[in-house]
Design goal:
This protein is an all-alpha fold and 417 residues long. The chain folds into two domains: 190 residues, Growth Hormone, Chain: A (Up-down Bundle); 200 residues, MFS general substrate transporter like domains (Growth Hormone, Chain: A). The protein is built from 20 helices and no strands. 54% of the residues are buried.
């Protein structure tokens, strides 16, 4: 970024001026190894709330005699809530005490989970799902908290530990909810999740050190800085849209898998659908390789490769229409592609404005989860209207669109970027 552009952005966005001044400071409150591990577990528990409902959708639908197309809105609303929370709540971490924000979000998570467990109607479930998504951004607040407190020489390792905990939460959520729903019912899963979230309060109260706000500025001014960054960085817009399309493809599969496995010839319950979440461990295992590849070849190369791998997964799903083994292999391929593209995209986004990494990441994650919400909703419609083949075609279309946008942007042929 040129000096002239930077000065113009700083003049329009005083938040960035503060971050420039802050960049030379180091944490005054060290993070212990125990605190980092506790924050990683808490982040995993928080983000798991986004994925509990996916294997349980057939059970929830049966409880309210609702068709799949209607019940499929629950993952969409949860992800829309998460996108809203990323935009509205995560920037608060720069202007108020993050401890207060963490505990306020946990309170919101607990209330939302209790609301889901007691829900008397689908409309109630819709509202509670949206609110749960909003408050589950606690995971991203903890990542930013750790980044603020970590010394520069240990920041990468600490953030990596938290992201590993978050990824484990994502992988285990579907498996746990599938098992619980199969044997105890879907409402019990939400009571268990509420209890786990309440337990976080007691543990985090001892683990989180006190730290002052890093940018005590007006809330509206902080939000306006996101607009300035969006306008300034063409690569941020392109990476965000590519990431959103890829997450849409990912959500198309995971939001409809339980319905496919519950239908003939399988006739399986949510437990089997949940066990497919364990296959995501393969994608997690390839994350270090994707990181090294990004360092060597650049984020653009990893994103392009990940987009192609993601697209390849959907023909495998179509061929594996009646094969648990081929569906499982396709799930592994899908997770590897999504993980690789995510690492490449975030590596690019976080390098665009070193003095505003939290805000560029907020923008990227908002678009990312809007894409996930789109995929969840349209995936449910595709299943209802066209069946499994329609799901596979839709997911493939999203992945191809992401790959095309990425390639066109790198060659300078798109007006979007």
């Amino acid at each position: 970024m040129s000096a002239g552009v930077h000065r113009g952005a700083a003049a329009a966005c005083p938040v960035l001026d503060h971050e420039v001044a802050e960049s030379g400071t180091t944490s005054q409150v060290p993070l212990s190894s125990r605190s980092v591990k506790i924050m990683a577990v808490a982040g995993g528990i928080a983000v798991a709330n986004l994925y509990y409902n996916q294997p349980m959708l057939p059970e929830i639908g049966a409880s309210f005699a609702a068709p799949p197309a209607i019940v499929a809105t629950l993952p969409m609303l949860t992800q829309l809530g998460y996108a809203a929370g990323l935009f509205l709540f995560v920037p608060l971490g720069d202007i108020i005490d993050r401890r207060r924000l963490v505990f306020a979000l946990i309170a919101g998570v607990c209330l939302s989970l209790v609301g889901l467990a007691l829900a008397p109607s689908l409309a109630w479930l819709d509202v509670a799902s949206f609110l749960l998504g909003m408050c589950s951004v606690l995971a991203q607040v903890l990542v930013a908290f750790a980044g603020q407190l970590a010394a520069p020489v240990t920041r990468g390792r600490i953030i990596g530990t938290l992201l590993a905990g978050i990824l484990l939460g994502i992988l285990m959520a579907r498996t746990i909810s599938g098992l619980v729903s199969e044997h105890l019912g879907w409402r019990v899963m939400y009571w268990i999740a509420a209890t786990a979230s309440l337990g976080m309060v007691l543990v985090l109260d001892r683990a989180l050190p006190r730290a002052p706000a890093v940018a005590p500025l007006p809330y509206l001014q902080t939000l306006l800085s996101l607009r300035d960054l969006w306008r300034e960085h063409r690569q941020l817009r392109r990476s965000s849209m590519v990431g959103g399309l890829l997450f849409a493809a990912f959500s198309v599969f995971w939001s409809t898998l339980a319905f496919h496995l519950a239908a003939p010839p399988f006739d399986y319950g949510p437990q089997v659908a949940g066990l497919y979440g364990l296959l995501g461990a393969t994608g997690a295992a390839t994350a270090p390789l994707a990181g090294r590849l990004t360092d060597r070849r650049g984020g653009g190369f990893t994103v392009g490769l990940g987009s192609i791998v993601t697209a390849v997964a959907f023909p495998l799903f179509a061929l594996g229409n009646n094969s648990l083994l081929l569906l499982g292999f396709g799930a592994v391929v899908l997770d590897i592609g999504i993980q690789g593209a995510m690492i490449g995209n975030q590596s690019t986004v976080l390098s665009l404005a070193p003095k505003a990494t939290s805000r560029t990441n907020t923008i990227y994650m908002v678009i990312y989860f809007l894409g996930g919400a789109l995929g969840s909703y349209t995936g449910g419609l595709a299943w209802h209207v066209l069946g499994w083949l329609g799901v596979c075609v839709l997911g493939f279309a999203y992945a191809v669109a992401a790959s095309t946008l990425h390639v066109a942007g790198r060659e300078g042929r798109t007006s979007i970027a």
